[in-house]
Amino acid sequence: MLDGPVIAEWLPVSVAALVLLLVAAGVAGWVDAVVGGGGLIQLPALVIGVPKDVATPFILGTNKLSSFFGTLSASWVYLRRIRVQLVLLAPLVAGAYAGSTVGAALSRFVPREVLTPIVLVAVVAVALYTLFKPKMGLEHAPRHDSRAAVAWRAGAIGLLVGFYDGILGPGTGSFFVILIVGVLGYGFLQASVNAKIANLTTNLAALAVYGVHGEIILALGLAMAVMNITGGFIGAHMATRRGSGFVRIVFLVTLSILIVKLAWDTVAQFAG
């Protein structure tokens, strides 16, 4: 925790920590809106800023509250500017919700130390694949004309990434984006719209669980939500104005941060 007395019982952080968390929430909202992965910024900030005697579920619940509203604002901007296809979106969202539910239920039985190295290899592969295919995702060119083909592939993507979000989580939005681009042939910008709404679904599912158990620091979560909404609004406007090329660059930067984090976690767990 950052040094200093806490502000109040209902806002158990110091003034310095609150400033850090508000800035982190704004930056996370921007990143999340463009390509996903804002949790890589916001969650570590919460771990640093909140007192150590606050239970982990409260940190996770507060993070989900802020992220949910930021993703909601970004989704609204995208939906007003970019057309989505229900034949893709409906099965994607249904699969994401089901996968997230199953993943969350199994998360207590699967050690993170087993999953982290596997995810690290997957993220490195995705980054290299994107880097060496510079034209991938720059044009919106759907590969499948059959509605059934689109629907079952979208459902499978939702189920797979939703399961990952429930069982581990970091970089969920980025995985949604790359699979929609790589499997369905969507442009990065169009993929981001669908990824936002799918990620909104997984956030809502998790938020419901934390909310039912009262595991949210409400005042802090709402304050961070305001900044997350602001960052998300700005990020979504920038993405829709600048197009898929801009989203691709942010995507690669976000993957680089994710690789560093997962590599650090992997080294730490084996060193320990």
From TrEMBL:
- Organism for this UniProt entry: Microbacterium galbum
The family note in this entry says: Belongs to the 4-toluene sulfonate uptake permease (TSUP) (TC 2.A.102) family.
Q: Where are the transmembrane segments?
A: 57-79, 86-108, 114-132, 175-195, 245-264
Q: Which Pfam families match?
A: TauE
Q: Does the keyword Cell membrane apply?
A: yes
Q: What is this protein called?
A: Probable membrane transporter protein
How does the record say this protein sits in the membrane? Multi-pass membrane protein
Query: Where on the tree of life does the source sit, at the highest rank?
Result: Bacteria
Cellular compartments annotated: Cell membrane
Keyword terms? Cell membrane, Membrane, Transmembrane, Transmembrane helix, Transport
